[in-house]
Design a protein that fits this description.
about 80 residues; alpha+beta; Glutaredoxin; four-stranded mixed β-sheet; 4 helices; redox-active center; cytoplasm; glutathione disulfide oxidoreductase activity; GLR_AS
Length: about 80
């Protein structure tokens, strides 16, 4: 399942989310929205109005931000989502 993560440079939450995805061996598409209002607007629309980064998607499913995916992982629910 394709994973997409919207990020900005120097964002500690983005780095933490990327570290978790890397630790899971997940291939993902990182979209840097810094200075790109069209990509930021796309992220806000896809996430149902969330304006903060990161925003993470597995396919069309919105997983949320950094805290959300760490919570999914703690409940043992992240791996099944990432593995389709």
């Amino acid at each position: 399942m394709p994973v997409t993560i919207y990020t900005k440079p120097m964002c500690p939450y983005c780095h933490a989310a990327l570290e978790l995805l890397d630790s899971k061996g997940v291939d993902y598409q990182e979209i840097d929205i810094a200075g790109k209002p069209e990509l930021r607007a796309q992220m806000i629309q896809r996430s149902g109005g969330r304006m903060t980064v990161p925003q993470i998607f597995a396919g069309d499913r919105h997983l949320g931000g950094c805290d959300d995916i760490y919570a999914l992982d703690a409940r043992g629910e992240l791996d099944p989502v990432l593995n389709g």
